[in-house]
């Protein structure tokens, strides 16, 4: 367990925060709540959960009304902070550290005039960019252009052209995929324009349309003119995620078998639902060892008409293996290395995840042709401003349980382990999805029935479910099994911001509409929360600190947040008392240091090297 989780938050004492976001809301409530709001808060707190609670209900704001679902005491408080969700954001809200130097931010001590200036501008050349901003022109190589023209011509003759793009990291795979997609969607030949292109995104570390840690099948109808964090929504009309699976990890190395199983299911979905539509398959940059075995397996299974390798520099063993696995056209293209790398893959994933969780709703816009188009809309306020979605975990009408991939923590540590982390919400379409969890966990008779799940009932599957001391249901996974992707699908990600043990509810922050959860339950299907090795959402813990840093009067310092996995953990000294923004030292999972202080030695998370079987005979 990470050392930065220093205390357990059970939601028992109403005066103490349950999670990072709840802690920030509580401190703001104590400092800014008026006497009127305090009276309203006490009235909300006196209400007890009733039998008509909606098991997937958003936290209500304002005074209690007849028919309004009851909510946990700590979450039902009406605060001036939560009211700010509906207010118009400031013209120049303070940018998060991960988005710094991306927008035209006002200078220090900005005036009212400069505060009204646009945060963006049209850039014709790199010289037009703001100072200290690194921009590299998109340059499509001559070899790329020739291949793109050839592919577009082939797609006219064969509309169901399938193309697999692979190669080393940072070779231009995503860039070429975007160019190819846009060329297909904008091809003005004599035939009718394509109604869309299917993109199979098999890179969980840097996905194009879905959240990080997932594999997805996307039906794109509009050209892709933005970076991944500009279109992270699963329900975007321009790039609809048809089916999605979560590996609960950003690398296929966590479970190669699950990776292939998810890819097979996505390919089957494409064959069943999108016959005659072009297919673009994007793969990760893992081209050696087990990664090469996975690529060759994908090529042999999907049999694409075109396999493009985005490098002319080998390695030769990779090129030879892929060429041998390809039964059709195999092409090597020159890579396009970026001259400037201002953000790492982890930073880009964090920005994409941040963008995903700040999605508010689909905004409707009308074009000149009176066509109504749905566009993504974001809420720029910190997540602590947003009421959570309350989910009962003590009822069959709530979640089915928690499933952990890879490391299995003891039941008494489950609440501490998952609290404050990103989880995947998975819809169980059939009880056969649990077939891998039964061996060695139940009696022989029950295991035999569950192995042949055609005859098994849901009540028999419930025999494998255990509970933590807090009553949270979970499915033991000591055999390192995974949900069968043929009978389950990921509907999105959630951030577990708190656990209320009194009302037996989980407090979730997610862009998934509550209506989608309710619809799944109304169809008699279950929802599982999947825990694994998603990136720690440190950006969510520090959002409120950035908000307050910008609001502190006379504050002219830059707030820097360092993740726990740094090489700067050198100091043996304890943090000193600090003021203003830095006085929020009670925020869970956030440690505030002053000046040149460093975290104590041993504070880093130990990285365990996994044996992937490369040297096995």
UniProtKB/TrEMBL annotation:
<protein>
    <recommendedName>
        <fullName>Polynucleotide 5'-hydroxyl-kinase GRC3</fullName>
    </recommendedName>
</protein>
<keyword id="KW-0698">rRNA processing</keyword>
<keyword id="KW-0808">Transferase</keyword>
<keyword id="KW-0067">ATP-binding</keyword>
<comment type="function">
    <text>Polynucleotide 5'-kinase involved in rRNA processing.</text>
</comment>
<keyword id="KW-0547">Nucleotide-binding</keyword>
<feature type="compositionally biased region" description="Polar residues">
    <location>
        <begin position="49"/>
        <end position="73"/>
    </location>
</feature>
<keyword id="KW-0418">Kinase</keyword>
<dbReference type="InterPro" id="IPR045116">
    <property type="entry name" value="Clp1/Grc3"/>
</dbReference>
<dbReference type="GO" id="GO:0051731">
    <property type="term" value="F:polynucleotide 5'-hydroxyl-kinase activity"/>
</dbReference>
<feature type="region of interest" description="Disordered">
    <location>
        <begin position="1"/>
        <end position="115"/>
    </location>
</feature>
<dbReference type="GO" id="GO:0005524">
    <property type="term" value="F:ATP binding"/>
</dbReference>
<comment type="similarity">
    <text>Belongs to the Clp1 family. NOL9/GRC3 subfamily.</text>
</comment>
<feature type="domain" description="Clp1 P-loop">
    <location>
        <begin position="167"/>
        <end position="358"/>
    </location>
</feature>
<dbReference type="InterPro" id="IPR032319">
    <property type="entry name" value="CLP1_P"/>
</dbReference>
<dbReference type="InterPro" id="IPR027417">
    <property type="entry name" value="P-loop_NTPase"/>
</dbReference>
<feature type="compositionally biased region" description="Low complexity">
    <location>
        <begin position="32"/>
        <end position="48"/>
    </location>
</feature>
<dbReference type="Pfam" id="PF16575">
    <property type="entry name" value="CLP1_P"/>
</dbReference>
<feature type="compositionally biased region" description="Basic and acidic residues">
    <location>
        <begin position="94"/>
        <end position="103"/>
    </location>
</feature>
<dbReference type="GO" id="GO:0000448">
    <property type="term" value="P:cleavage in ITS2 between 5.8S rRNA and LSU-rRNA of tricistronic rRNA transcript (SSU-rRNA, 5.8S rRNA, LSU-rRNA)"/>
</dbReference>
<keyword id="KW-0539">Nucleus</keyword>
<dbReference type="GO" id="GO:0005730">
    <property type="term" value="C:nucleolus"/>
</dbReference>
């Amino acid at each position: 367990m990470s050392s930065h989780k220093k205390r357990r938050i059970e939601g028992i004492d109403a005066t103490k925060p349950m999670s990072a976001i709840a802690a920030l809301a509580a401190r703001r409530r104590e400092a800014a709540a008026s006497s009127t709001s305090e009276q309203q808060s006490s009235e909300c707190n006196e209400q007890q959960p009733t039998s008509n609670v909606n098991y997937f209900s958003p936290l209500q704001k304002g005074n209690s009304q007849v028919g309004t679902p009851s909510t946990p005491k700590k979450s039902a408080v009406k605060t001036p902070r939560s009211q700010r969700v509906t207010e118009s954001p400031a013209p120049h809200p303070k940018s998060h550290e991960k988005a710094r130097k991306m927008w035209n931010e006002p200078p220090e001590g900005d005036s009212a005039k400069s505060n009204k200036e646009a945060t963006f501008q049209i850039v014709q050349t790199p010289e037009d960019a703001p100072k200290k901003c690194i921009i590299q022109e998109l340059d499509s190589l001559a070899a790329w252009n020739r291949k793109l023209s050839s592919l577009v011509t082939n797609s006219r003759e064969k509309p169901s052209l399938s193309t697999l793009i692979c190669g080393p990291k940072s070779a231009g795979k995503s860039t070429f995929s975007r160019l190819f997609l846009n060329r297909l969607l904008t091809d003005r030949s004599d035939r009718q324009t394509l109604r869309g292109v299917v993109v199979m995104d098999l890179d969980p570390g840097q996905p194009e349309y879905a959240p990080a840690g997932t594999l997805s099948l996307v039906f794109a109808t509009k050209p892709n003119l933005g970076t991944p964090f500009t279109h992270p929504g699963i329900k975007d009309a321009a790039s609809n995620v048809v089916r999605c699976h979560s590996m609960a990890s950003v690398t296929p190395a966590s479970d190669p078998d699950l990776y292939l199983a998810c890819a097979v299911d996505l390919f089957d979905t494409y064959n069943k639902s999108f016959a005659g539509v072009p297919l673009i398959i994007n793969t990760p940059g893992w081209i050696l060892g087990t990664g090469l075995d996975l690529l060759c397996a994908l090529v042999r299974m999907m049999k694409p008409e075109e396999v493009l390798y985005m490098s002319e520099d080998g390695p030769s063993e990779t090129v030879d293996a892929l060429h041998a696995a390809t039964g059709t056209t195999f092409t090597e293209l020159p890579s396009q290395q970026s001259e400037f790398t201002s953000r790492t893959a982890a930073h880009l994933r964090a920005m994409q995840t941040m963008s995903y969780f700040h999605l508010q709703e689909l905004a409707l816009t009308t074009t000149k042709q009176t066509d109504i188009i749905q566009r993504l809309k974001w809420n720029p306020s910190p997540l602590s401003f947003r009421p959570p979605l309350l989910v009962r975990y003590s009822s069959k009408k709530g979640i089915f349980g928690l499933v952990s991939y890879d490391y299995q923590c003891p039941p008494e540590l489950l609440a501490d382990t998952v609290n404050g982390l990103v989880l995947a919400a998975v819809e169980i379409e059939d009880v056969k999805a649990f077939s891998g969890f039964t061996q060695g966990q139940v009696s022989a008779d029950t295991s035999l029935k569950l192995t042949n799940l055609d005859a098994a009932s849901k009540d028999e599957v419930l025999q494998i479910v255990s509970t933590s001391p807090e009553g949270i249901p979970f499915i033991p996974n000591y055999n390192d099994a995974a949900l069968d992707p043929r009978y389950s699908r990921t509907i999105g990600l959630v951030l577990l911001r708190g656990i209320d043990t009194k009302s037996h509810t989980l407090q979730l922050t997610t862009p998934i509409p509550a209506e989608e959860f309710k619809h799944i339950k109304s169809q008699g299907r279950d929802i599982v929360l999947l825990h694994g090795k998603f990136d720690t959402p440190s950006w969510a813990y520090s959002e409120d600190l950035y908000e307050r840093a910008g609001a502190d009067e006379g504050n002219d310092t830059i707030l820097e947040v360092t993740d726990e996995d740094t090489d700067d953990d050198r100091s043996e000294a304890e943090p000193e008392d600090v003021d203003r923004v830095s006085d929020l030292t009670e925020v869970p999972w956030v440690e505030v240091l002053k000046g040149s202080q460093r975290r104590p030695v041993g504070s880093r998370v130990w990285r365990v090297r996994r044996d992937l079987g490369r040297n096995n005979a």
